[in-house]
Amino acid sequence: MSDYTLGIKELDAAIGGIRKGSNIMLIGPPMSGKEVILYYIMYNGAAKNENAVITVTTRESAISILEWFKDHKLVLPLARVGIVDCVTKTLGGAAVENENIKIASSPVDLTGIGVKISQFFEEYYMKKNIRKTQLHINSLSTILMYSNIQTVFRFLHVFTGRIKATGALGIYTIESGMHDEQSIATLKQLFDGMIEIKSENDKNFIRVVGLSPKPTPWFEYEIEGANVKIVGRK
Fold first, then answer.
1. Which residue from 214, 217, 219 is spatially nearest to 232, judged by alpha carbons?
2. How far is CA 80 from CA 53, 128, 201, 213, in A?
3. Which residues of 120-145 are buried (b: 16+ CB within 10 A; e: fewer)?
4. Is the pLDDT confidence value at 95 over 60?
5. Considering the chain, what percentage of its residues have pLDDT values greater than 70?
6. 3-class SS letters over the chain
7. How sure is the predictor about 94, in pLDDT bands with cuts at 50, 70 and 90?
8. Do residues 194 and 23 make contact, with C-beta atoms less than 8 angstroms apart?
9. Based on C-alpha coordinates, what's the Rg of the chain?
């Protein structure tokens, strides 16, 4: 069995699973269901494969993410789920931390975000002895809106290095078409592969590049509730 899987069986079969220590960019246009795909991978990792999953959210509050899973009747094993919430404080909401939620002041506060991620890593790896951990950052695009590329690169360099050192898995979402090519090329240096999404003629396609000897085919997918369903291929 491979070290990590996405839970989308056609993609997992095409790449033969994901090696531990891998860092992956998940890139695609707005409105293509990237969040649902990331939540799907999160659920597959935490609930089915018994990994710890740390999610950094710059788009939705931690509470609304947990509600999303509840609304879709997906039971997350909360002992293995940690969310770094960069949203609630910026909106002036009640920022209450608990076992599953740590609050960063904003997406600008990369030092604070880094500290909270490290706390979760220590909790799962050292205290709970969970040897497989995923780090998801959703999204780099929000962070890039507030910080320059050099600062974001340095921040990511620390955590992509930690992913490699601990045999974890990192997945980082970014909006395609929102950043200049130089910025994307700079960040790509940190990643082992990419999950690419594109939209054509009102259809969405996904493929994986860099994690197997050649790119996977483009698979057409549809989002049904909380499910990512492959319906064809190019």
1. 219
2. 6, 9, 39, 32
3. bbebbbeeeeeebbbbbbbbbbbbbe
4. yes
5. 99
6. CCCECCCCHHHHHHHCCECCCEEEEEEECCCCCHHHHHHHHHHHHHHHCCCEEEEEECCCCHHHHHHHHHHCCCCCCHHHEEEEECCCCCCCCCCCCCCCEEECCCCCCHHHHHHHHHHHHHHHHHHCCCCCEEEEEECHHHHHHHCCHHHHHHHHHHHHHHHHHHCCEEEEEEECCCCCHHHHHHHHCCCCEEEEEEEECCEEEEEEECCCCCCCCCEEEEEECCEEEEEEEC
7. confident
8. no
9. 17
Phi-psi category of 119—alpha, beta or left, where left has phi over 0 and alpha has psi -120 to 50? Answer: alpha
pLDDT band at 2 (very low <50, low <70, confident <90, very high): low
Q: What's the order of all strands across the beta sheet hosting 227-233?
A: 101-103, 81-85, 52-57, 133-138, 169-175, 22-28, 193-200, 203-209, 219-224, 227-233
Token digits of residue 84: 């770094």
| Mean pLDDT confidence for 35-44 | 97
Helix axes 110-122, 149-166, angle to 10 degrees: 10
d(CA 140, CA 188): 12
The pair of three-digit structure tokens given for residue 182, joined into one six-digit string: 């130089």
Cβ-Cβ contacts under 8 Å for 147 (sequence gap 6 or more)? 108, 110, 155
pTM: 0.96
Rounded distance between C-alpha atoms, residue 172 and residue 26, angstroms: 6
